[in-house]
Write a structure and sequence with these properties.
The protein is built from eleven helices and 16 strands. By secondary structure, it is α/β, with parallel strands linked by helices. It has two domains: 341 residues, Alpha-Beta Barrel (TIM Barrel); 73 residues, Golgi alpha-mannosidase II (Immunoglobulin-like), CATH 2.60.40. Helix 8 runs parallel beside helix 9.
Length: 438
């Protein structure tokens, strides 16, 4: 990989600062796969060849797509930004791409540029918009050598990878060229497909990646993005330590530093702003048989834990092929928004800490307040407070009732949380401090 200028533009630094305090965003997985209603990996998992998969395009007619409703729901949920799949691994574009006719305008009866419609509505409602873009493509003839996936699509067994990267850069230039407004971030995925080290959920022993060395030209692509829109944040869901030129470090289905899902085994936490992404259900794309939905308390607790780990929470929905957001998603997002209306000061606009996550919960803070998010009350009710080196605590207040809680100085400074004060979702205690927290 060629070297980048490692000194970020001041506009990038400002965008990173905004991102670190946004804390909550909407992820949207939507594409041809929604027609089948079996999740976003249906082409790969059901071994559908390209000619058969392309037959989905004439069936994709999202006449119920209402960008104002989508953005309005995100705002009511307390979300600060939206990231949508401009192109997933299937290779189908949700905009009027000039680099390929395999897109929503030229191949579907709908015939409209969904991303342009969404971009205009985001601008109207003051919502930041970013684009997910897949490095991996199960359809493109120049995506060669093949990686761990896409071996049943009927792609060519030869190709020019340099031409494929040219194609990606052409599409990215379209998205960032001004027709889609100010692009908040580019969220890359699929780089992992070409890695020799197999990740747990990917690939098969009978289809190892080629030993041929490929050049993603990441430095060149990242420089292109920042040249077109200097404020655009770049993140790559590659499951390893961030590369030069990236602005966000992402953790898929895990809080930073954890590896319960098997994706982030090689991802050490760096200095960049952090984000964790997760689904409301099991699939990322629409799944008509889905029954396993996370509860509102589960989702709120995940948001709180993400903030306590100094990370944003990018929560995914998979709209129906009609363009409608199913009620199971909408109901949960509305409930999360109602909770944030009451307690949002303890999440949005905060940073994680000052102490690391504890068995009882996590802390968030702004300059003048520390918020204790007690998710599991200790048996003795005592919660050790952070070292008072840069601040002194003036008071401890239950955020839901305004009641004052006593502090104990025995064996350090502790807060006593009575059992009757416990909230079933998150007991939040606000610590007012005498001096701004550094």
């Amino acid at each position: 990989m060629s070297e980048l200028n490692l000194a970020p533009d001041t506009r990038i630094l400002e965008a990173r600062r905004w991102f670190q305090e946004a804390r909550f965003g909407m992820f949207i997985h939507w594409g041809l796969y929604s027609v089948m209603g079996e999740g976003e990996w249906v082409m790969e998992l059901s071994k559908i060849p390209i000619p058969d998969y392309e037959k989905l395009a004439p069936q994709f007619n999202p006449t119920e797509f209402d960008p104002a409703a989508w953005v309005g729901l995100a705002k009511r949920a307390g979300m600060k930004y939206i990231v949508i799949t401009s192109r997933h691994h299937e290779g189908f574009a949700l905009w009027d791409s000039k680099a390929s006719d395999y897109n929503i305008v030229k191949r579907t009866p709908y015939g409209k540029d969904a991303l342009k419609m969404l971009a205009r509505e985001c601008e109207r409602q003051g919502m930041k918009l970013g684009f997910y873009y897949s490095h991996l493509d199960w359809r493109h003839p120049d995506y060669y050598p093949l990686g761990w996936t896409g071996h049943h699509s009927g792609r060519n067994v030869q190709g020019d990878f340099a031409k494929y990267v040219d194609y990606m850069q052409a599409q990215l230039s379209e998205l960032l060229g001004g027709e889609y407004g100010e692009v908040f971030c580019v969220w890359f995925d699929g780089w992992w497909d070409q890695q020799v080290k197999k990740l747990p959920q990917l690939g098969r022993p009978d289809a190892p990646p080629s030993e041929t060395q490929i050049d993603w030209r990441l430095a060149e692509t990242y420089a292109l993005i920042h040249r077109l829109q200097p404020q655009t944040l770049i993140g790559c869901n590659h499951h390893v330590t961030p590369f030069p030129g990236e602005d966000i470090q992402m953790f898929e289905k895990d809080l930073p530093g954890r590896d319960t899902a098997g994706w982030n085994v090689d991802a050490e936490i760096g200095e960049l702003p952090l984000e964790t992404c997760e689904t409301i259900c099991t699939s990322w794309g629409y799944n008509k048989t889905e029954q396993n939905y996370k509860s509102v308390p589960e989702l709120i607790r995940y948001l709180v834990q993400a903030a306590g780990n100094d990370a944003n929470f990018l929560l995914n929905i998979g709209p129906m092929p009609s363009g409608r957001i199913q009620p199971e998603f909408a109901e949960r997002l509305e409930a999360m928004g109602a909770w944030l209306q009451k307690y949002g000061e303890s999440v949005c606009g905060t940073r994680g800490g000052p102490s690391a996550p504890q068995p009882w919960g996590v802390m968030t803070h702004n300059q003048h307040r520390i918020y204790l998010h007690v998710l599991e009350r200790p048996a003795d009710g005592l919660i050790p407070l952070p070292e008072q080196t840069n601040f002194s605590i003036k008071s401890a207040t239950l955020l839901n009732s305004g009641s004052q809680l006593p502090l104990s100085t025995e064996a350090g400074v502790n807060l006593f949380l009575p059992g009757e004060a416990v909230d079933s979702i998150d007991t939040i205690v606000a610590l007012d401090i005498a001096r701004p927290l550094i």
